[in-house]
Specification:
four-stranded mixed beta sheet, three-stranded antiparallel beta sheet, 3 helices
Length: 181
Amino acid sequence: MHPGGPFWSRKDAGAWSIPKGEFLEDEEPFAAAKREFSEELGLAVPEGELKELGSVQQSGSKIVFAWAAHADLDIEAIKSNTFDLEWPPKSGQMKQFPEIDRAGWFTLDVAQTKLVKGQVPLLQKLADALGIDLPPAAKLELLPSTGPSSKISSGSKLKSKKEPKPDGKDSTSKEGQTSLF
């Protein structure tokens, strides 16, 4: 998924992410991953076997736990939450933006270039789980269209979140841990 909002609007390579989010207090990684998947995409977690891929550490010491599923997921049906942001900065004007503005399916070579750097190792874990070799990363400047993607319609507004602590961590989350699919 591609993050919405003005900061990400012109970024593509290294900007995409797998649905993820922070744990709630006393929440297990798998439960957090399923909750965040549903909240961010507006869809139920696909039925079927979910393969645990383990974890990776992103920059900022955030640990990401991941699972994979073989399932059909209609990216046209994704409905994003929204968030409010003062835009332009220091204008005093609050605008609403979708949390995610696009979703897409990519081959493993293209995904290596699209994903944020800290999540790229998950692709090797996925390839290992599938028993295949991870192909070299694609050179996106040579690819006019890198796979099907879809604009996302905005859905419900995000519920009020607690303000982050001065250290940047949310007071209701387990320190530095996220779960994703």
